[in-house]
Amino acid sequence: MTELLLAERVAVVTGAGQGIGREIARTLVTHGARVILADINGDLAGDAATDVGGIGVACDVTSPEQMHDLVTGVTTDLGRLDVFVNNAGITRDASLKKMSVEDFDMVVRVHLRGAWLGVREASAVMREQKSGSIVNISSLSGKSGNPGQTNYSAAKAGIVGLTKAAAKEVAHHNVRVNAIQPGLIRTPMTAAMPPEIFAEREAAVPMKRAGEPAEVAGAVVFLASELSSYVTGTVLEVGGGRFM
């Protein structure tokens, strides 16, 4: 039997109640990890945990106290923390003219502040262990910019800068920090798009199809495992060649 890539590793995935986050959790479990699925909706986290075989917890990623308690609880109960995936996110799309300050702040707060808190808390534990992998979920929107998503694109671009700066700070502790930029992926979020917009964006992908959450999850497993032991500060695009 082939050895599991993440056997006995302890992993946390935020925003794991549905979509890409749930699939990341499922794939980490498949590869042997013990996974904590965190979501602001505790019931959704519990359902997802039952589905994939992990542990579900409620957590607001914008709260320093809750993020600290999440990491402290995991390390207290399971003894270590090997993988932390900052995946939680929301959208509040509107044109510049119509977007409210509140909707701009909310999106940046969840994506960028949430990821920063996750990196801060996880790296504090991993530095002491002298090992660990942090994976931040950005987006191709942070590379190219999407009209109607100035808040989302700005936050996702910020995650790239956060990733590179943090990677430089903790590399000498054998802690790695990388980012993934998914493109058009079939999720509840993209399912809510007008069909004509989805079709237009899908046609712009060189591979001529949208991606599946499992394809993003596969990239997470690579960055979480020893297969990428000399990879840090990188941005891995999972977008079928779009914007290459």
What would you say this structure looks like, in words?
With 244 residues, this protein is an alpha/beta fold. It starts with 9 loop residues before the first strand and ends in a 6-residue tail after the last strand. The protein has helices at 19-30, 42-52, 64-78, 101-129, 141-144, 150-170, 188-191, 195-203, 213-224, and strands at residues 10-14, 34-39, 55-58, 83-86, 132-137, 175-182, 235-238. The protein has a single domain (10-234), classed as NAD(P)-binding Rossmann-like Domain (Rossmann fold), CATH 3.40.50. Helix 2 (42-52) links the parallel strand 2 and strand 3 (55-58). InterPro entries: KR_dom, NAD(P)-bd_dom_sf, Sc_DH/Rdtase_CS, SDR_fam. Belongs to the short-chain dehydrogenases/reductases (SDR) family. It is an enzyme of class 1 (oxidoreductase). One of its GO terms (biological process) is fatty acid elongation.
Which short descriptors sum up this protein?
alpha/beta; 7-stranded parallel β-sheet; 7 strands; Rossmann fold; NAD(P)-bd_dom_sf
- Largest sheet, described in full? 7 strands, parallel
CATH homologous superfamily descriptor:
NAD(P)-binding Rossmann-like Domain
Query: From N to C, what is the helix and strand string?
Result: EHEHEHEHEHHEHHHE
Number of domains: 1
List the total number of helices. Answer: 9
Count of beta strands:
7
Q: Given this structure, which CATH class is correct?
A: Alpha Beta
Q: Averaging pLDDT over every residue, what do you get?
A: 96
Radius of gyration of CA atoms, rounded to a whole number: 17 Å
Helix content: 40-55%
Specify the structural class. Answer: alpha/beta
Q: Looking at CATH, which topology would you report?
A: Rossmann fold
Strand content: 15-25%
